[in-house]
Amino acid sequence: PQLAANGISGSLIGLEERNTLTTAAPTNRFVFNADWSNDVFGGLVRVNRFGSATRQFDFGGGFAPNQTYGAEWQVDLEVSATIAKAVTVAIGANNVFDNYPDASIDDINGAGNLAYDVLSPIGVNGRYVYARARVNF
Prior knowledge:
Oligomer: single chain
Distance between the termini: 65 Å
Strand content: 35-45%
Number of helices: 2
Order of helices and strands: HHEEEEEEE
Structural class: mainly beta
Strand order of the largest sheet: 1-2-5-6-7
Mean pLDDT: 90
Shape: elongated
Largest sheet: 5 strands, antiparallel
């Protein structure tokens, strides 16, 4: 009643916010991880599987498009070598197979500017390759 007295009608939590809290996150996630090392070499394989998610938008005027994004897989790899007693170097890649999420439908892609949903669990940049050096003191 206090909100109505001040001209505020409807729900305090809008359609998009309810969606973010309920169905915009993947329905499930599985992580399979294998990590191996000896005195010199090491390796890591990680496989992520993200379940489907549904996004809904409220652009006003009754226009509320939604899209269900399919499940996605992502594979990460890393190899490392100890090259001195305290120095380890590694190279790796996240999203080795350069997987991208489902493209957004025309109704929600920002006139072509937002090809992928910003909440995608696998990101929108594809493969990420890196090198790392670690020194233990």
